[in-house]
Amino acid sequence: MGRREAPVKPATPPHPVDELLPPGRMATVALQHVASMYAGVAAPPLIIGAAAGLTPARLTTLLAASLFIAGIATLLQTLGFWRIGSRLPFVNGVSFATVSPILAVIEAKKDAALPLIFGSTLVAGLFCFLLAPVFCRLVRFFPPVVSGTVITLIGVSLLPVAGNWAQGGNAAARDYGSLGNLGLAAVTLVSVLLFHRFLRGFFQRIAILLGLLVGTLVAIPFGKVDAHALAGLPLVELPHPFAFGAPRFEAAAIVSMLVVMVVSMTESTADMIALGEIVEKPADDRTISGGLRADGIATALGGVFNGFICSAFAQNIGLVALTRIRSRFVVALAGILLVVMGLLPVVGGLVSLVPQPVLGGAGVVLFGSVAVAGLRTLGAANLNVGSNAIIVAVSLAFGIFPIAYPGFYHAFPEQIGTVLHSGISAGCLLAVTLNLLFNHLGRPRTVPPATVPSATGPQTRTEPAAPVADPA
How far apart are CA 404 and CA 408, in angstroms? Predict the structure, then answer.
C-alpha cells in the first residue's frame, strides 16, 4: 500500500488591507483618493504663499513641495518599513492646523518668515518622531473637549482669510471689495453648492475643484487670469532643499508649531483608530506609533523640502468606508501619483492661476467645513459632564479674541505675543490647561456612558472610574 499523503491546507487569503487589486480598478480608486484630497493639499500653500506675497513661480514651488511631501507621507503610511508607517490605507497631507500660526509668523516677521517657518516645521517633525512611542499614553490629555475646541478655532480663524480673498486679497488694490470680485466669489460658492447638491459619487467629492474651475473660467473674460506665468515653467523639476533660504529657529515660532504638531498627532491617532474599525483591522499601539513616526518623518522632510506639517486626511477615510475598498496598495498608488504631480511644476502653475476672489468663494465651504469638523468632535465630548462646557466656552473666547481683535495681545513681549497672536495656539494652551485643572487634578470622578461618534457610526462606551471627566 502506498503512503497516504497529508491533505494540503488551502492557502489563507490575505486580509483585505493587504490585497492587490486588478490594475484598472486600483488606478480608478487611487484617482478618487487624489481627487478627494487635492483641494485640501493645495489650499494651505496657496493661503501661505498669498500671505507671504510670493510670485506665481515661487508659489508653484510651494505647492509642488506640498504635493511631493503628501505623496511621500502616504507611501510611508501605506507601505512602511521597520517600525514606521501604520500599514493601513491611510492618506496624509498638509494639515490645515498649520495655516493660522504660520500666518501669524508671516505678519510678525514679513520677508524673514519662511525660513523661520521651515525651521520650526523641521523641529516639529523630529518632535513627533521621538514622541510617537509614548504619545498613546499622553493622548488622554487631548480628549474631544480639547481637540474639538482647537479644530473649531482652526476653521473660525481661517474664515476671515476667505473673506479677504473674496474681496481681492490686496486691501491696497483699487478693486478691493468691488462688486466684480465679490461676484466672482459668489459664482464660485454657488457653483460648489450646486455641484454638491446635484452630483453624486466621485463628482460630488470634487465639487470644490469643479467650483474653482467654473470660477476661473468666468474670471478669464474680465482679465483676472494671467497665464503668462506658465510660460517659463520647466516640464519636470526636482524639489530643492531650503529653496526659500537656510532654516532659522526661534522659540516662539517653534512653540506655535509644536502646538499644531500635537493637535495633528491627536487627529491622526483618532483617524487611525476609526480607519482600523472600518477595515476590520484594529489599530493597536504599535500601529499608532508607526503611523505617528511616518507623520514625523514626512513633517521633518517638509521642513527641508519647503513643505509643512503632515496629518491624516479624514475625507479619504470616508472614501474607504464608502467604496469598501480596503487595500493599502490602492492608497500607495495614490501616493505615487501625488509624488509625480509634485515633480511637474505645470500642475502647481495651473492652480496658481486661480484668482483670489475665486479662492475666497471656495474657501467659505472649505474653511467652514473645518469648523464643522471641530463641532462634530465636540459632539464626542459630553458637555453636560463636569466643567467641560466651561472649558470649551473660555477656550473659544480666548482663541477668538486675537481673530476678532488682531492687536489684542500687543502689550505682551514679542516672544509670547507671537504664540498668543494665533487663536489656535492661545485656545489650545488654555483648553489643555483647563482640562488638566478640571478633569485631571483632584479626586477621580466616575464617567457615565457617553455616545462617541466614529466613522462607522455612533457607539456607546462606558468608562471606569478615572481622573478624567471626558476621556479621549
Answer: 9
Name the residue among 272, 295, 290 with its Cα closest to residue 455: 272
Q: Find, among 384, 103, 42, the residue nearest to 253 by Cα.
A: 103
Distance CA 350, CA 357 (A): 16
Q: What is the mean pLDDT, run by run of 10 residues, along the chain of 472 residues?
A: 58 76 80 73 83 81 89 91 87 82 82 88 93 78 79 78 82 85 93 88 72 88 76 77 88 84 79 76 83 93 90 73 78 90 77 79 78 80 81 90 80 68 75 86 51 37 33 32
Q: Are 456 and 321 in contact (CB under 8 A)?
A: yes
Cβ-contact 145, 438 below 8 angstroms: no
Burial class (CB in 10 A: 0-12, 13-18, 19+), 58: middle
Q: Which residues of 355-389 are buried (b: 16+ CB within 10 A; e: fewer)?
A: bbbbbbbbbbbbbeebbebbeebbebbbbebbbbe
Task: Write out the DSSP string of 379-425.
Answer: TTS-TTSTTHHHHHHHHHHHHHHHHHSTTTTTTS-HHHHHHHTSHHH
Cell of 268: 491622526
